[in-house]
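Hi all, posting the design record for the shared folder.

TITLE: backbone redesign
STEP: 1 of 1
STRUCTURE INPUT:
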């Protein structure tokens, strides 16, 4: 089976396929056209997939390639590959560039949104997080292309623990019980993953006050990037599309 080729086309698909028999020609923006023409060296007649990052995708046939870009004609809408679980993960950003890897893997695992989380014992401050937001958003877009996902997860602005500690959410806490068995598919579920230094007493008090559900991943101490992937996998297995 040949590898699928996915290209981002912005808002072109928002109203399509309202008239599925009407041919629509789209022009790839410069970066996407360069990849199609000069990197993949695709030619007229090849079939690719285009998507808008908001859940719409369609097959398209290349109708023109040239030094100035490429044009495609939309063909058939593609079914969505989204999880029935609308999972948001708020992650305390680790040092270095580990967050890029977290964003990549969480995109592949079908997470709907990712919040860089500002915590009392976090290793990275809010200012440093904001400088990397655009990079993380590019990583999410490229990961969506790679895994064939038409919806790119939202990489939100950095948020504090107080802002995201909402009733009904989950908080990863060493020594707690496993993931609650009553997790069910639904549009919104937020999970909080703290820094390797752990939650502060103030944060744990807020979690208790707002009735967040605690859970753990066993007896071993996991790095933040490992915990994020494990949490996404287990929740998608329990209530998403991995079960």
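Okay, here is what came back for every position:
SEQUENCE:
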């Amino acid at each position: 089976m040949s590898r699928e080729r996915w290209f981002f086309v912005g808002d072109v698909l928002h109203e399509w396929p309202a008239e599925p028999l009407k041919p629509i020609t789209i022009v790839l923006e410069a970066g996407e056209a360069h990849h199609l023409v000069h990197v993949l060296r695709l030619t007229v007649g090849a079939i690719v997939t285009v998507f808008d990052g908001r859940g719409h995708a369609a097959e398209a046939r290349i109708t023109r390639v040239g030094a100035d870009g490429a044009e495609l004609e939309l063909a058939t809408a593609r079914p969505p590959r989204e999880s029935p679980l609308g999972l948001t993960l708020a992650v305390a950003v680790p040092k270095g560039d580990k967050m890029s890897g977290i964003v990549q893997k969480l995109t592949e695992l079908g997470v709907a949104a990712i919040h860089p989380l500002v915590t009392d014992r976090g290793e990275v401050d809010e200012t440093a997080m904001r400088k990397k937001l655009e990079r993380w958003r590019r990583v999410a877009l490229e990961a969506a292309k790679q895994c064939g996902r038409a919806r790119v997860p939202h990489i939100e602005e950095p948020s504090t623990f107080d802002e995201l500690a909402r009733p009904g959410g989950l908080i990863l806490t060493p020594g707690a019980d496993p993931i609650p068995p009553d997790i069910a598919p639904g549009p919104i579920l937020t999970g909080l993953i703290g820094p390797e230094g752990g939650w502060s007493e103030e944060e744990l008090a807020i979690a208790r006050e707002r009735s967040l559900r605690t859970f753990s991943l066993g007896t071993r101490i996991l790095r933040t990037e490992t915990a994020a992937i494990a949490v996404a996998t287990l929740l998608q297995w329990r209530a998403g599309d991995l079960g």
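COMMENT: Residues 6-77 form a domain with the Ribosomal Protein L25; Chain P fold (CATH 2.40.240.20).
Let me know if anyone wants the other runs.
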